[in-house]
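Changelog note: in this version the structure field was regenerated for every chain. One regenerated record is shown below for reference.
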Amino acid sequence: MIAGPLANTNPPHELILVRLLEPGPITSGVSVLNRRLDEAGSELEVQREALASAGALVRVAALTSSRPELDLVRLAGESEVDLVVVDGHRPVLRSGPIGGAVGRVLSELACDVAIVLARGPSGIETGPTRPIVVPFGGAEHDWAALELAAGIAVGSAAPIRLLGVSRPDTEGGDPSRLLANASVVLQQLAGIVATSRVVHSVDGDLGAATADAGMVVAGLSERWQREGLGAARSGLLDAARAPVVFVRRGTRGGLLAPPDNLTRFTWSIIPGAAAPSEDATRDAAATPSAPG
C-alpha cells in the first residue's frame, strides 16, 4: 500500500481510506447489507489502526456504490484531496481508451490520480534493498510519477532508480542528461539522490532493470485518453515483477513541475507487449492536503 509512506512525509498528509461495495440483490435484505458494511468497516479499522500507530492521520469510510467512479469523484471533491489512489486491474487497462470507473476518475478529477496494478496478492514492499523504479522521459505525467515516488521513498527509506530508454536511431538519443537533471531536481526538493540506468527496450532490459524493485512508478502517456496505456507501458507492466503504479498529473500541478528547458524522451515501443483486458475497480485510498 502506498498510502502509508505518503502519510509520513513532511509535512504530514491525512489519508482517507474508502471501501466501495457492490450493491447486493434487493432480496438479500438489510441484515445482509449491514453485515457486509460491518465486515468492510472492520477491515478498514485494522488498516486505520496500523497506519495510526505509525503516526498517520487516517479517516475511513465504507459504503455501497453502483457507480464507484461517481462516488470517488464526489468524495475527492468534497475533501479537496491532492491524490486519489485506485486499485486497478489489468483488464481495466486494456488496449485503447481507458474506460469504466478508472477512465471516469482519470477524466473528471482535478487532483493527481495513481492506478495500482499488481500481479498477485503480494503487497508493495519498498525499503533500503527494494528500490522504487521510475521510468522517466521528462513528460508532465513522468514528473508526477517522480513526485509520488519521492513521497513514498521519504516515508519508506527506499532508494529511487531512474530509467531512461536509449534511442540510438535518433539525434540526441542518450537520456542520461535528462536523468541527471531530474536527479538534481529531486535532490533539491526532496533530499533524495537517485541512481540512473539507461536501458534498450528492444533488448528486453526493462525486466532486468526492475527485477529487484519494490514497486515501479510510471507516468501515463500524454495520449492516454486516446491510447490508454499504449504498447510501451503495457510492455512495462508485463516485464515488471513488482506492482506497477501509473500516475496521471492533475490540473493543479505539483511540487516537481517539468522544467521548460529539459528535453523530453518518448518511450520506445516494446515488441510483443500484451494489452490488458477488462474488470472493475472497487477499493481506493485518497490523500488529501496536509492539515493546515
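Spot check on this record: The two ends are 25 Å apart (CA to CA). The beta strands are 14-21, 57-64, 81-87, 112-117, 132-135, 160-165, 195-199, 215-219, 244-248, 283-288.
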